[in-house]
Amino acid sequence: MRVLGVDPGLTRCGVGVVEGVPGRPLTMLAVGVVRTPADADLSHRLLAVEQGVEQWLDEHRPEFVAVERVFSQHNVRTVMGTAQASAVAMLCAARRGIPVALHTPSEVKAAVTGSGRADKAQVGAMVTRLLRLAAPPKPADAADALALAICHIWRAPAQNRLQQAVARHTVNPTKGRTA
Amino acid sequence: MRVLGVDPGLTRCGVGVVEGVPGRPLTMLAVGVVRTPADADLSHRLLAVEQGVEQWLDEHRPEFVAVERVFSQHNVRTVMGTAQASAVAMLCAARRGIPVALHTPSEVKAAVTGSGRADKAQVGAMVTRLLRLAAPPKPADAADALALAICHIWRAPAQNRLQQAVARHTVNPTKGRTA
């Protein structure tokens, strides 16, 4: 199972590809960050996120995309941009018929560290260990993207197969009716 | 000047096309709503919004897209979906090099009614009058989309020309660096 994890953001959107199955050692295929200039127009920043995510999908052909579920109780200033960047990532996956799963930050932390309240350093340390890397991926957004992908591989494989089957049958959703 | 106004939403995304210049009677070219099924997966709802907006852009070729600026102090449950639908609309415009402007609800109300605190009925009544329609457009999201387009035509035409010139030179923004 090959999963692209996306830690959404406008300034830094973490992306990481992990391959594996539950109960076997996991392999990191790639990790990085899609950046957009903070002084650009919002619509152009979203376009840059789209181009970045498209490039990752083209290069790594993931079977699933796991995106961090954004909550609005976070910092009010940044949460809108985060929600919008996540929308672009979900849209890119949906266009290709790739199933999208959303995982909350605490689900991700619990999956890789055993505690839903683990800090960034702990998540980074476990990602490094689980993927047998020489050093924790930087920046934290990149490590978080890998943690999302790992979380997705480990959570409910049966559910993933179901979701994949559903996605295959709903690649072309009902078009919005226009008048 | 032809403007597509977008009142973003996942369940109902209002869309309306208005043509005109400040100081002259305005013309409504089309109005409608892009709907997505509430029981669909979020990624597929975003895809349906994209398909709907693309269809409106194809059919009406607007020179500007005016989108309601989303604030996070609104209803926490719906605001994330609204932000995500607005991201899709902005992205569709940016891909075509169409300048996107964001207007706040109070700017729109003030533009069409003279008061930033006008209610839905008042906005609907003024949209009906300004566009010389037989009846207020339904649902309210459709009327709001027309109000957004009117607001855009009336606000700072010089600024619009500048923005259009800038957009022409930044159709291909800096790609997100990927590692």
From TrEMBL, chains A, B:
The active site is at D7, E68, D141. It is an enzyme of class 3 (hydrolase). Its cofactor is Mg(2+). InterPro entries: RNaseH-like_sf (IPR012337), RNaseH_sf (IPR036397), X-over_junc_endoDNase_Mg_BS (IPR020563), X-over_junc_endoDNase_RuvC (IPR002176). It is found in: Cytoplasm. Its EC number is 3.1.21.10. Keywords: Cytoplasm, DNA damage, DNA recombination, DNA repair, DNA-binding, Endonuclease, Hydrolase, Magnesium, Metal-binding, Nuclease. Pfam families: RuvC (PF02075). Binds 2 Mg(2+) ion per subunit. CDD domains: RuvC. Mg(2+) 2 binds at E68. It catalyses: Endonucleolytic cleavage at a junction such as a reciprocal single-stranded crossover between two homologous DNA duplexes (Holliday junction). Belongs to the RuvC family. This is Crossover junction endodeoxyribonuclease RuvC. It comes from Streptomyces anandii. The lineage of its organism: Bacteria, Bacillati, Actinomycetota, Actinomycetes, Kitasatosporales. The gene is ruvC.
